[in-house]
Fold this protein.
Amino acid sequence: MIHLADNTAPAESDGTFWTWFTGFWGTALSAAIVVAVAAVIHFLGSRIIKRSVARWISTGRSREDSLTDTPEATVELQVMIMSQRREQRAHAVGQLLNSVLVVIVWGTAGLIVLTQLGVNIAPIMASAGVVGVALGFGAQTLVKDYLSGFFMIVEDQYGVGDLVDVGEVTGRVEEVQLRITRIRDPSGVVWYVRNGEILRVANQSQGWTMASAVIPVSYNADLAEIRQVVIEVGNDMFNDPETRERMLGRPTFAGVEAVSGEAVYVKILAKARGGQQIPLTRELRERLKSAFDAHGVIVPVLVRPMGFNPDGTPQTPGSMPPTGA
């Protein structure tokens, strides 16, 4: 009996070890295969995303090369400017897609490996579902902000450096994240705006904007002369390399905006590149003022009543009440 027991014990031990050994290597091999497949999928997905982004950029550049930078072709100029933004948006979308690819591929691979190691993932999935529902109710605004930020980047509603009006604040965009957008207003104050709270966006940096100046001239002024002065100013600005970079065409005499007993208000328009509306408008007013002075065009002093004197006469700026008042 003892001899038989001694003979069978090593055999049982060898069988147990062999079973464990083969099971271990089988599990390790299966896990390695899962990791390898995930790595291949990740590599192929990244390559596809990279090539798609490159094709997107090259398509925009090829179309841009076929266009001509002339002030008469405003639509073409807008396409050229938007093509420059397309490259930035393509890179941003590519980074987002790569992040999503990493989470999906390696998250799935991790769950499969845990299953092969004998870990029961059902409680984990159930807990994740409960936590997900709780977070869904408790973090609705956070999810809304992230989704809004994602679509803002994909749709290229605005980007860093753009001059935008988002309702509560107007200023230049300094940073765009999935949850918030950082904007600096003209006074230098930095605003952090949640993307989910942005309902509308007015972007002054996409394509082109219109610079305009409304200037009063004397009621008796010759409008033909005013038109000629505007044409001269427009030609000078268009031929100046410094101001030419801001413009998409020569300033034009739009016509009479309003007429009063004191003055005639004329309007001058000029198409400006994105984000250049304000500096171009200031330059336009300055040059028009100098040109009007050179041609003897009188800009009348507009008088507005500020109230009434004790004797019932209108009180104007700088007027003094009658003696004895």
The helical segments are 2-65, 74-116, 122-138, 140-155, 223-239, 241-244, 277-295. Residues 40 and 46 are 10 Å apart (CA to CA). The first helix runs from residue 2 to 65.
